[in-house]
Write the structure tokens for this entry.
Amino acid sequence: MNKKTIWVVDDDAIYQTIINKLIQKSEAFSAHSSFTNGKEAIITLKKMLGNVNSLPDIILLDINMPVMDGWEFMEEIKMIKSKIDKHIIIYIVSSSIALEDKNKSKTFTDIVGYISKPVTIEDLVSIVSNQ
Amino acid sequence: MNTEKKLASFVNWFTFRPKTSGYLIFIILSFFIILISLQRFHMLKEDKQREMSIILNEIHENIDQSLKICQVSIVSLALTINDDGVSQNFDQVAKQLIESNNIISLVQLVPDGIIKNIYPMKGNEAALNLNILMTPYLEQLANKSMKTRAFYFDGPLKLKQGGIGVVCRLPVYKKNKFWGFSAAVIKLETLLKISQSNSFDKIKYDFQFSNINPLTHKEEFYLPTKIDSNTNNYVYKKIPNSDWQIYLIEKKPSDLYLIIFLRGLLGISIAIAFGFFTSKLLKNPEKLKVLLKDQETKLLKNEMKFKTIFDQATIGFAIIDACTSNFKEANNKYCQMLGYTFEEIKEKGIANITHPDDLEDSLLNLTNLEEGKVEEYSLEKRYITKSGKTIWVNVNVSPLWENYEKPTTYIAFIKDITQKKETQALVEKSQSQFKSLIDTIDGIVWEYNLETSSSTFISKKVENILGYTAEEYMSSPTFWEDHIYPEDREFVLRISTIVNKKYKNHDYEYRMITKNGRVIWIRDIVNFVYENGIPVTGRGIMIDITVMKEAQKDLNNSFHLVSEQNKRLLNFSYIVSHNLRSHTSNIESIISLIESAESEDERKEMLTLLKSVSNSLDETMIHLNEVVNINTNVDLITKPLDFRKYILKTQEVLKEQIQLNEASIIVDIPDNPIIEYNSAYLESILYNLTSNAIRYRHPQRKPILTIKLHKEKDINVFEVSDNGIGIDLKKNADKLFGMFKTFSNNADARGIGLFITKNQIEAMGGKITVESKPNIGTTFKIYTK
């Protein structure tokens, strides 16, 4: 099984530290990048458009973030989708348990699933294996 | 006496037979007229005949005279014959004769029947030596003449020498022995001319000349006029010494008949007229007699009819003596009504059967009638029946005497109207019930005539609802529209006009102004009433719904408030759940990592992380507490505050940041900047906005803040502006004042300041607005109320 590249977009520094630990422990990913908001992530993504290998396989996306939130990020993805040569799996990862957010996530076809925090190693493994 | 009687009966006979009489008169008159006409005719006819005879005689005279001349001539001629039977001086004598008598065309001597001497000879040679005795016709004539030995006129006959002539012959005897003839010829033409010389009226009469043919013994006519032997219109005369007859013929005998006929006709016409008029004249008495009989029958029938009507009528009749007020007659119905027999009524009298309360009125009316003040009267009154029941009747009383006469009797028509009265009372009762019912309806009932465009009814409730009386309402045709609240008037009148055209029942709400100037809400329910398919009346009810409207308004306000609070609460719960969960989920993760830690260092690292989560959780709890405090703070104490002092206080607290960032603050406020506000909130709001302005300063310039205070519509408004990085409001307007919403990667951003500020301002009953442009700056405006 090829190891995957994973991006984590979240403004919570503590969460980033934790997820970093979990990714290492799961040993399921070849590479891991962290972004504090959607804007940082999309800028990076746009830079990598020409380089298929460096594009992520999986993105874990938070909803509530400053500058650019999860939904805005998804809108941006929609716009550049045709230029992305790779199938990127996007999961929403949020502490919100509001039904509203869950339903909204379903309106984006590119969103594969919705994971409520906390994220466990098992979650990460199943994301990879379900692919 | 007897004769007179006979005469009378005779006259009567004719009088009652007008047709026969007329006919008789006609026949008698006609008979006399015909008789007279006939006599007249005969008289006229005789006159005519006489007149004609005279004329004919004259003609006869003329001819006779001519012939006599002729006779004299031939005698003269005969005298020329000597004893030897030879004519001497014939030519000389003949010449003389012809010259003196121009009627004679020629003379001749005929010895032994042979024509020997002719004068004039010229033109008459053919006759010379003609033996007339050898010609059978002439012979007979000559013989005739010889027998009579007198003159004889022969002809008219065809002359041998030509032409028609009359020959006058005289047989001449010498010594008693026939010698021959002396003859003269007169041309017929000449003869006729002479005969008619005495001119008679040729228009009226015609002349005819005839001779009896000696051979055939038939009459021959020589003129074209025809004689109708059947009619009596001619006269004739024989000429002596000849077979000649002369005639005078009336040309137009019918004239006489026509005159007589016309006269007769006139007479007959007069007779017809006489007969007709007589019969007509005689008919009149007969007609009169028939009429009389007819009238008699009619009268009898009428009497019976009236009697029947009187007795069987469905209304009561009574004939009352005017002087004594006693009943003279009353019909069955009247008796029935009262339950008495006629005898009983008669005995009782009017006064006793009339209800005591109505007696005075009845008597007054009767007096008026008797004095001639009124011609008749009608009255509704009560009677008391035999059984003691009171009945209502309508009495109609008319006098049976003429104006100038003394009062005799009067007739009364009485109709039982008890039931009608009862019904009327019932109707009145139900009407008043209806009316009071309408007045109890908690709304103004109104009615409007569509044809005349005017109000016809308004219920009393108008006084309770609008304060105006019904009279005041009805006094002005535009009262209703004049009292509609001005803002609503236009739409109300528009709708009213539309529905009044379409006759559509409708129901609408609008405001009106009451007498004391209060604005009330009216719900007007309009219906149209149709008569024969045509809408004639608009009817409706105006209900005061002010209380309801106000309740609705309150309800709306409450609803708005509740939904606002609900929204805030939802937002809050969302935030709480999100923020708390983000911490708890972190804690959960850290704990699981600690449990599965492979080394002591790793566990220590996780514990440090846990500590920072704990701090952050604590901070969140403080913020949440703060928010909850604002939202639960129902009774906020406000007092007049010096705005300037609070600016200074804020500058003092933020002194370090201001100095560090070299920020400058421009204060633009009035001299006496007092505002009514909650002290803690004002301090908090100013702190948050000022610190935000410094925190989100533009990296390329020193922060400049402006704090202003002014009034907008009596409300104190203060502004905090900066020249910072600004916010893209297009993207973030809805999140700006949200909890835990941050828009930059500024490490200090907590996303709670503006949330708290907004809540505090709204808790004070005011509002906050924002204007911002990225890279230019932001202005927050706070309305204190």
Summary: The CA atoms of residues 594 and 600 of chain B lie 9 Å apart. The interface with chain A takes residues 574, 577-579, 581-582, 585-586, 588-590, 592-593, 596, 609, 612-613, 616, 731, 740-745, 749, 751 of chain B (CB under 8 Å).
